[in-house]
Structure prediction request, 369 residues.
Amino acid sequence: MPNYFVIRQDTSPGIREVLYDELRRGRLRQGWGIRNLGLRQGEAEWINRMIEEARRVGWQEFTDPQTPREAMEIMARNRRAILLPMTQIESGDRILVPKQPQYGRFVIVTAVQDSEGRVYWFDNEPEPGARGVMGDDYRHVVNVNGEQVKEAAYEEDFNTLVINRKMRAYQSAVNKAWDEEFRRAVDLLLERELEPERPRADSVRDETFQRVVPSVLAVLRQVSARELERVVERLFAKQGFDVVRGHVYDREGGDIDLMLRYTEDPPGLIQALSSDAQLGLLLHVQVKQKSGVDSQDMLGVKQLVSMSTSMSRDMSTSMSRDSGSRMPIISVLISTADSFTGECRKLAEDKGVLLIDGPSLAQIFLKYS
Prediction:
């Protein structure tokens, strides 16, 4: 059985693009990797070298004369502990890289051995001057199959929604993923991409399904904004949600079109939204009737975030008093727009807001209405 990892790369402008190009070439590179810091050496040796090399390249936290040696050792030890799982990666393991090649998207790759039998290795060459924007860094390398890179958006389908919900648990630079739903979603996405030929029945079904989606979306766009809210409300009601309130404002910028509650064992749609659904959950929903690309779509995310911070804490506590536990809260922005802007995707990813665009809403409607 493969293991599963989440590795977060540097997303700085210019660096992200180079790291993505390297990924396509079969080299997943990670930072905190200046020369002489290969992870196969012992802890004490690595810590000493980390401090020396960091001073050499001028990393501020290691050059500040006010920082005591003990504090530097703690920082170095912590960074080594975060990176060390890279040495555990074996051929066939799955690796998910968030925010590649851009915000709101991710890639999944499979680890492979090179001709020397290595999966993880440390790149001490070439010299920094020949490495462009990478300079003297990003030398931790995991060999991957660069010809089979699965790329997806977080709201693309139900498996990507699961992954989006689970990402909060994997915030370190290198994470080993144990969650079964996350692992299953990764496998299903890889199978969808790598399966050489689907059975005829599946191909016909999928082709028909995709042909119907634009028609369904066109009908959804024809109804009024209020009726669209009712459509969404009925969709979730069929999945077992109760309507708690509608059109909630906090007079501080917060706005929710629907506040829904779920307390029973989760059906398929609920599982896609939250791994905590079995504990009961509250759903904060904004519904936008749009077409094309909505240039103001960030407003919906900001309204949901503002509402969550100003009033959902008290609401969730009171509703979960009987069970003795607090209900998880999921914020969802649903729009009939063709897609979301890059700025909106970035903000939603940072704030943990799920985005469902028009084509995705049409697919959900076809599957669950």
